[in-house]
Write a structure and sequence with these properties.
The chain is of the alpha/beta class. It is built from 34 helices and 12 strands.
Length: 754
Amino acid sequence: MTADLGAARSALQNGRPELAYGQLAQITSREPTNAEAFGLLATASVQVGKLNEAQSAIKRSLELQPQNADFHLTAANIEQDLGHLEASVALLRKALTVRPSFAQAHNNLGIVLSDLGRVEEASNSFAEAIRLNPQYARAFGNLATVQMRMLKLQQALASAQRAATLQPDYAHAHHLMASAHTMLGDLPAAEVALGTALKLKPELVESSLLLAQVLSKLKRPDEAERVVRNALTLSPARAEFWTLLGDLVSGRDDLVGALDAYQRSMQLRPNDVITTARAALLLPNVYASEAHLIACRERYSRGVEFLLANAETLSRSVSRERFGDAAPSNFLLAYAGCDDKVLQRRYADFIHKLVLQAMPEQEHALEALRTLRRDANSGRRIRVGFCSRFFYRSTVGNYFASWITDLDRSIFEVFVYQVHVVDDEVVAQLRAAADHFVQGAENFSFFSRRIVADELDVLIYPEMGMDLLCFLLGALRLAPVQVCAWGHPVTPGHPTIDYVISCAAMEPANAATHYNERLLTLPGIGTRYDLPTVTASVSTKSRADYQLPEYAHLYLVPQSLFKVHPANDRLLVTAMANDPDGVLVMFAGQNEGVTQKFIARLSAAFVAQGVAPQGRVKLLPFMTHDDFKRINALCDVMLDTLHWSGGNTSLDALAMGLPIVTLPGEFMRGRQTMGMLTLLGVEELIATSTDDYLAIAGKLATDKSYRHAISQKILANVPRLFNDRAPTRALGALLQSLVLNERDASMRDAPLLP
């Protein structure tokens, strides 16, 4: 009989589980007390997909040898495969009671604990497995996985690197290294690690998926798309690849192709909230015309209503851990030049339906936070948190860094949450200024829990709508008072956002009607903004250095192409028709497809007005901020765009003395430049009509002496815009008032004590 058992064992080892299963069934039938044979039968049964038989076989093995740690391990693995995770934990702990030095059991226990969400315990189990067996590559890989879940990114990277060193052909270890590099913001290193992983195991689809995402972030969308399409030839039934393909195709404004990809994904994974929502709310970066804009907006409106009507079905697969991926961004909605109040609120209503499904405790979150605040030490400093992806050298970082650095630390305890990993001089400044600086990869679960744990009095989102993670965090009640600012100057629509802070000089008289939230305003431009300067090496550059025509009248239009509403086309072309020596200076989009679509639209506008487009538009590539500011100094006039005016771009222009002509819009997002010019005392650059706009622009471009006089007036008055502490002092007083009012409300709502 020993020979028969040996033959069965050999069949298992040589990848012939069906043969082994038949042989072992006969052996155990003849030898009902052969514990080893039952143990092997359990293993063979798993491999042929007969889990219930495997469960029965290993149970018999344990009846015969209850102190056999290997049998407990096998039994635990079977229970895990059946989804009985707590039973698996109990069996693994029994195995470790029998054999405390059983490294594999410690490793497997970590896997099951991780599946249960008990990541700290899982980390300890993997660490113990490694202590017992320092050469255990898989345990290092598993440890890296849970360390990333805990956002211990440097430790995760070190663990993954150790796993790859111990086992160089361990493809998943290289994938884990890439994941850590990605979360740490080192995309080139991630690309290298993924190349190694896919060389070792080309069928590792998770690596292909991550590589496509990395290439997309590296602004190489064509390569990303090739990776996805190649992966789909290997795994055409992976819905997430079709979804990513839809994202990439939509990025170049091929909406038909994007919808096709999303629909293929939904066929494979019906009622998936991520893909369904992206398909329903699909918008282009560049509209072909104003009629196209209206049609897309109507489609979006129908999509929002569809999502709301089907929210219950769509939300069933959403958990707290997955919620950060559960919705599309509606970022592009704001650039249609329309009143978004209703649509924003309807979109937010959909998000809140998902929130309450994933986190039902959110329904009573405000009451819970108020109770917590009543119990807190009333003598402590006011705890204020700032949450953004863009706390680095960016428009948001430039605008709102002073909100953090200028708050009185004797009154405020400041928490900064950078939901991203970027380090530069702005990050260093904020890290030094804040009492608590939390930096981490885009992880919804981590940040939602961390912010609640910090027991804030007020939470501020400098922008809401540019970054999906912050928009989703804003849907939660994480502090008793929650505020957003004008970093993305559109009402968020969340019932959990109490106030929106804006600038009085930039808001129209009826501004309060544009927001779902209560509107509050600050003086000046609402912030202390440092006066932009240009380094010496750039200050001497000429037009020729940027391939700009030396003797043309240069009309700068610096906005991103998705901000250039179709209503601008006629205005820009007419300006060129009025000035034969005029040239529009613009910047190419980050996606070549988007740029080509915009140029085609603008060229059609030139032809429609009988103006030859050749040589009338100079498209510049992406450049450093210093070079961008120098471009401002070399141009003659900046044309502020309709519906979405310049913010950071206008401040850069005015700091360089470049005159800006603007036609204020209906909403704050179309009135920022107007507010700046009003504060500077150069209201003559604020047009009252399109004809007035064109007249001012033409005079500035062609009348050198007039342009010089306006430029000198701007430069003389720039102290009114820059380095002004009045807005940040007003912010401090405002926050104090909001917190005190909330505490009073909390006490009024408190139950009476006997």
